[in-house]
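WARN retry 2 of 3 for item q-0093 after timeout on previous attempt; input resubmitted unchanged.
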Amino acid sequence: MPEQFTRAFAERCNGLCPVRVQEAKDGDRLGPGHAFIAPGNRHMRVHRDGQSYRVALESTPPVNGHRPSIDVLFTSTAAAAGENAVGVILTGMGADGARGLSAMKRAGARTLAQDEASCVVFGMPREAIALGAVDHVLPLSELGRAALELSGAGGVR
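OK item q-0093 returned
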């Protein structure tokens, strides 16, 4: 997503979603009921900080031609959180995120993908499904609820 878009996108999502949505800042603490969107042109990683998890932002080279790259986020989440994580891959072109979601699944995370019927572009979910990285394929209208239930957040702000 472009640099000038992500903050406005996060603010719009925050007004529409039952969880708090914000553009990530370096060092943000992750927790149930919060969603963070990587700032445009920055990779977002998850790292463990004692008993909690935090965001690390970086401007390292693009991965899969993207910065931010979902593979960077998911791979770091697999390493930091393992079975304590839930990964969701949504509509999009290409394969970014498929290998990272696979790493999350191998680490014990629960994984979800958007179904073809509700996708604008089924490329990213298709690639993740083909890799065997997905536990459940659901329509967009059910993904949020399922992710919140699996994470134990319950969907309340």
